[in-house]
Amino acid sequence: MTATYDYLIVGAGFAGSVLAERLAAELGKKVLVCDRRAHVGGNAYDHADAAGVLVHNYGPHIFHTNSADIFAYLSRFTAWRAYEHRVLASVEGKLLPIPINLDTINRLYDLRLTESEVAGFLAARAEPIATPRTSEEVVLSRVGRDLYEKFFRNYTRKQWGLDPSQLDAQVAARIPVRTNRDDRYFTDQFQSMPKHGFTRMFENMLDHDNIDLALGADYRDVRQRVKFRHLIYSGPIDEYFDFRFGRLPYRSLHFEHKTVDREWFQPVAVVNYPNEFKYTRVTEFKHLTGQQHAQTSVVYEYPRAEGDAYYPIPQPANAALYAQYRELAQSVPNVHFVGRLGTYRYYNMDQVVGQALTLYKKLAGAESKNREGSDAALGRSRVHDQSGRQPLLQSI
Ligand code: FAD
Ligand code: UDP
User: Fold this and answer.
1) Contact 285/291 with Cβ under 8 angstroms?
2) Is 300 in the pocket of ligand 1 (CB under 6 A)?
3) Considering every ligand atom, which ligand is closest to the CA of 299?
4) Do residue 107 and residue 216 come from a single domain?
5) Does one domain contain both 237 and 155?
6) 160 and 229 in a common domain
7) Whose CA is closest to 147, among 275, 267, 269, 277?
8) Which atom of ligand 1 is nearest to the CA of 350?
9) pLDDT 10s digits, 38-67
10) Which ligand is nearest to the CA of 147?
11) How many CB atoms lie within 10 A of CB 186?
12) What residue ranges line ligand 2, CB within 6 angstroms?
């Protein structure tokens, strides 16, 4: 007999797993989560490597949020390890704090400026632009050309294969500029790492009798084998529609993982290389996880055009193309797009969790309206009668 589900969810990353958990645990829905990868967690997946060091398969993932609700929600599935992320950039032979702060400037230029003096130093160099529209304009308007060229221009070209002048302001605007000595990468209220890793957290989320998992299973095959009423899709939206309007560009990465036979490799979790090498940054995982081990594992990130989709590319033409897909998506009943690839947004993990919880509320509202509607039509209480269900869809 063909298995039947209330929801088929494509993708076991944050978007898919949050929705599966909510629909199963809160609404008692039967859910099948499929992922074409052989594991849960999406890009946040971590595992012990051959040396036994906990590594992030798809590059460093640091959890940070200003939302107490999102933090509380995830805290149901994991304990945390307090961790504040720090990054150094290799510039002119020095390892300097990035985001740019007072120490970055003093050490780069061999100065002894105070907090108030450095504000004047930056103001004298910044190129005022009323409404910066590109990543180049954002940085020039904050710190001027020299710091732009030393820290941002080449890193961005490497990471995106584009000049900062071709990228939306939001990309470089992720990195603030500080006149104090705060050298944390993020200033969010909640900054922590899941104590036993991201994968364990996902396993806890998905551990429910109403959730079935199909790993190593592509949606295009799964949809032939099961029946489902609703589809939640967190894969690339253009792929779902067979690239009808053309391909949405995504930036990919090649990850080179390495274990080194010494206790520590570098002074902080991440060192950025804006101007040297083909890789953008090197991450040493033990700084993130707090693991103690005689050896240490690192990953080098090499940006590239081809490969798994990791980053939507924030540019006006891509936003316009995505808008076409979004409009098409809105016309397909019972199919819901979510997540970084499903909605083509450069979202952090917490933003994806927030987006998934919002979609859940919408779906829960619609489910309760449907129940009320069918109860009223049948003139009886749904507690005694489930017959008001909609017909199942074989495939979409
Ligand atoms: P994903 O995690 O991409 O999950 C989507 C899943 O869908 C994938 O597992 C994919 O295999 C599956 N899928 C797609 N198509 C199909 C199909 N046809 N059939 C079956 N399965 C399919 N965020 C932070 O907050 N902090 C960080 O430090 C951070 N660092 C990052 C570093 C890197 C290198 C990258 C790439 C991202 C980083 N992020 C970070 C962002 C974070 O990874 C995302 O916000 C989050 O993982 C997105 O979750 P998602 O569920 O939308 O997508
Ligand atoms: N960036 C840069 N130099 C740096 C760090 C960041 O030019 O040393 C720019 C670059 O364009 C990068 C963007 O800022 O893609 C956002 O950086 P973030 O660290 O948030 O990128 P992610 O972790 O998402 O790859």
Assistant:
1) yes
2) no
3) 1
4) no
5) no
6) no
7) 275
8) 25
9) 999 999 999 999 999 999 999 999 999 999
10) 2
11) 20
12) 89, 98, 151-152, 155-156, 159, 171-172, 174-175, 272, 274
